[in-house]
Design brief:
The structure is a single chain. This protein has an eight-stranded mixed sheet, sandwiched between helices. The protein is 33% helix and 22% strand. The chain starts with a strand and ends with a helix. Helix 3 packs across helix 9, helix 9 packs antiparallel against helix 10 and helix 10 crosses helix 11. The chain is globular, with a radius of gyration of 23 Å. The chain has 398 residues and is an alpha/beta fold. The chain contains twelve helices and 20 strands.
Length: 398
């Protein structure tokens, strides 16, 4: 029987020879091994009456393949889709950013220093963070047929996201956010608009869109599609994470389908009726039944509740240029840490560090950094410790 060694040059041939031709040999389907090397799975979600949900962040095959070798293997086996680590469904936006020396008083005037057009959107920015950190990412969403839509599409293509299921709503206006930034503090105020024709049609979310994913990331932008995707994910054993900042009608139906709802402080009080974040998270945990509930606290960091225990992770002291997108990058970094199976302390520290670093540059994705830079900030950076949160978390953490 003729065997075909899939190598592109002499170096790969020598490497394969040293490994006794066991690195990667292609042969007819009938002669391929019936099973592949086992992979380790880590249980990341277990709720009463449900099977555990497992994530395997490693590639499907344990052989060390170059990108060209992998493409050849996929082509030869007739596979049309690669496995992905994360699928995201939600907001993708064009941000019109206006920089101001300071915010004017109500009814006042202020000169705009400059105006920029940048890429943004909560889910899209989180996915870009995952992609730059090395995860395989698929985006589900829509762009309009206008110039802003073309700009959004170009930005996502440049990040090499899987856009096989992205919708082109030619008659719709693409989502646009107008963002005013106070240069004296880095704080921003956002005004946005969204054409409902960007929503997925009824039945538009299919199981194939989630095929091969370990994590599904959602927001509440297109709630009907988010509900459909979350139900499919639950049946397929896919972990669901949600970034929620608006109490939209029907959000109470989505929360029970989310394993990791990490919400903004603007969402928490209206959603639970509790102003105190500790009591609010306890209420959210009871109502949702989630494995972990959490809230991002801006410069103060993040607070989470899991298995009846609170964990507070302080933010980092930085000179903020623009806080737009900090929460989005936090979620992307959180997903990365979860897929990599880190301890929760490490995940939260890393997420806070990535969010802080992003705030040192202009734009929702302007300061997305590297894992190494985040590690350096964690080791050397100053923390913005909210003493009340820290003391209460220690007291309630046991």
């Amino acid at each position: 029987m003729r065997w075909i060694l899939c190598v592109s040059d002499y170096v790969n041939f020598r490497r394969a020879r040293r490994k006794h031709y066991q690195t990667f040999l292609w042969k007819p389907a009938a002669l391929r091994p019936a099973s592949l090397p086992p992979t380790r799975l880590t249980t990341v979600n277990r709720q009463p009456g449900q099977q555990p949900i497992a994530l395997d962040p490693r590639p499907r095959y344990s052989n060390r393949l170059t990108p060209d070798d992998e493409s050849e293997r996929i082509r030869r086996q007739g596979l049309r889709e690669r496995k992905v680590d994360v699928v995201g469904l939600g907001e993708n936006a064009t941000d019109i950013v206006m920089r101001l020396p300071s915010f004017p008083a109500p009814g006042g005037k202020q000169r705009i220093r400059d105006v920029l057009r940048l890429a943004g959107g909560s889910v899209a920015s989180a996915l870009v963070t995952c992609r730059r950190l090395g995860l395989r990412v698929r985006y589900l969403g829509a762009v309009g047929g206008d110039d802003h839509g073309r700009f959004q599409l170009a930005s996502l293509r440049a990040e090499r996201l899987d856009l096989a299921y992205l919708r082109r709503a030619e008659r719709a206006r693409s989502r646009v956010s107008h963002i005013a930034i106070d240069e004296s503090t880095g704080e921003r105020t956002i005004f946005w608009e969204r054409d409902p024709r960007l929503d997925f049609p009824a039945g538009g979310v299919t199981p194939q869109m989630l095929n091969g994913a370990g994590v599904l990331h959602l927001d509440s932008t297109d709630l009907r599609a988010a509900l459909a995707a979350a139900r499919l994910a639950r049946r397929a054993g896919i972990t669901v994470i949600a970034d929620l900042d608006t109490v939209a009608p029907g959000i109470d139906r989505l929360l029970p389908l989310v394993d990791y709802p990490i919400v903004s402080s603007e969402f928490l009080a209206p959603a639970t009726g509790e102003r105190d974040p500790f009591r609010a998270l306890e209420r959210l945990a009871r109502d949702s039944g989630a494995r972990l509930v959490g809230v991002t606290l801006g410069r103060d960091g993040a607070l989470v509740l899991t298995a009846g225990r609170f964990l507070y992770s302080p933010g980092f002291h930085i000179e903020a240029v623009d806080t737009t997108g900090a929460g989005d990058i936090f979620h992307g970094a959180f997903i990365y840490g979860l897929v990599r199976r880190w301890e929760l302390d490490d995940v939260l520290n890393f997420s806070n560090a990535m969010a802080a670093l992003n705030s040192t540059a202009l734009g929702a994705r302007g300061g997305i950094s590297t894992e190494r830079s985040a590690r350096t900030l964690i080791q050397r950076g100053r923390r913005n410790v909210n003493r009340d949160y820290a003391q209460r978390a220690r007291g309630l953490g046991h």
